[in-house]
Amino acid sequence: MLNERDYQLTPFIERFNEYIEKINDSLSKEIECYSWSEFYLPLKYACQGGKRIRPLILNLAAETILDKSISSMNSKVADNIFSVSSAIELLHTESVIHDDIIDSDNIRRGQPAFHIKYGHNASILTADFILGIILNISAKTNNSHVTRELSKASIKMSEGEMLELRLVKNHKISQKQYINVIENKTASLFEAAAKIGAILANGNEDQINALANFGRLLGIAYQIHDDIIDYNNEERLFNILVKQSEQNNIFIDIMENTYLNYSELARKELERIEGNNRSKRILQDLTNLSSFS
After folding, report:
1. Total domains present in the chain
2. Is it the case that residue 7 has pLDDT exceeding 70?
3. 178-193 pLDDT, tens digit each
4. What is the 3-state secondary structure (H, E, C) of 20-69?
5. What is the model's pLDDT at position 243?
6. Of 49, 85, 107, 224, which alpha carbon lies 20 to 30 A from 75's?
7. Which domain holds residue 105?
8. Is 265 helix (H, G, I), strand (E, B) or coil?
């Protein structure tokens, strides 16, 4: 099991424990395929902990379209959804390994960051290995649409990271540039998760687009909200943005309204999807970002 590192019993973890356990089981199965590898133990370490927000969104998006729980689906369909959920989480994990190196973060989820435990060289190689696993999972789905969305997300995440590096170095940033960074670096994977969930559920074009927009808008809101909570690191992009403002408190209020606006826009995208099943209501609840606490 991947939950060897104790989860904090937050309301979020307790509420979605059934989903998280199944996502973890699927992730474990994927990693066990590489028990022969030098990367096996580092992989297990890298994937421990976390709320599994992105794969959870994929699962809920699929259930929203199918109007039933994944556990009640044909086993082959359910296995496919959970397998791609693992790919989404692995793509997030790969980005976390890189981010912690770039940001010089030494702690991740209450434990030594990956590069602190295994070193920089092993971290780079492990992230590359993870990308190979993602490609393998994608190939098994035999769905070019899923492969395309995973690829797009990976490219956008890298673009966002590169843009952030340039902006931090220049110590000058506009609010538009900040949004552009998080739209690529963070929101692209939220978008991919929701969109792929709709694709795997054979949603129509309108449903797929609505859920893709929902994921993107929620991802932007999520990152702004997260940055507001923890903006004391002087090297972070949001902190630079705050320092440029003559009145910090007023600017923080403006950014709080900004993330609330994005959250509301995300919620409105869900209204484009007919019906009001349990999974859709949960996605609506998630637009209240305090639910992630």
Report:
1. 1
2. no
3. 999 999 999 999 999 9
4. HHHHHHHHHHHHHCCCCCCCHHHHHHHHCCCCCHHHHHHHHHHHHHHCCC
5. 82
6. 49
7. 11-292
8. helix
